[in-house]
Amino acid sequence: MPEIPEIETVRVHLEHKVQGQAIEQVIVNREKALNVPVAEFSALTTGRQITTIRRRAKQIIISLGQERSLIVHFMLEGHVRLLYPGEEPAGKPTVMLMLNSGQRLAFFKLNLGYLHLVPTVNLTAMPELAGLGPEPLAADFTLKKFLELLAPRKGMIKPLLLDQAFIAGIGNVYSNEALFCSRIRPERKASHLTAAERQQLYHCIRAILTEAIKFGGVYEEKFASDDNFTGGFEPYLQVAYRTGRPCTVCSHLIETKRVGGRNAFYCPVCQK
Prior knowledge:
This protein is of the alpha+beta class. The protein has 6 helices and 10 strands; from the N terminus they run αβαβββββββααααββ.
């Protein structure tokens, strides 16, 4: 599932490539991905200009003026592809937006994900975004706030980092990387972390997410045929998906175990 760096990478692509364009036609191949009937979705989006592109946690908000917005959640397998004139989609898109430039914005594999049409309001008022925790890269997500959020928690630290109500936008890949960076075992209890470990974890979360955004995350799906940026952070992964390969610090082999129902990648020597 794409996390903050991957979704932020898509947001930037959309901002650079399609912001300012208008939707001329809508093709829907899976109505269940929408929250309104196809006819209503088409009527309320056709002719509308894409004015702003925002991100909240793992979701993208595409505003169509002051009245309505599209909220995209890719979930596990979804992705979006910009098709230039003359290019054909590889497969059947869930939804495709025909733009006035001749380009097409094709959303694929929204089987668990969705493309919802909602009123353009403050992000906190959108039901799709309700219950999300703070953004880990926001200016107001300070060390003090992180420590306050962490203080009452008693469960294992890795599942806690995956809890979107605790902190929004972190998933399996970057929880592994942040825990390795802070030298904390994924099954450690949050209540057992030392003051120094808590501070280090906060700084690692922000540093790794920032660096991953800089290099385009680890998303495999390219945004467009000329996209040479997406996925550039993969060579910098320290533990995620590196089972059986040597640790970049101590050379011990990286191991994997199930923690809270998810695969945790870690170095048994470096992480305590």
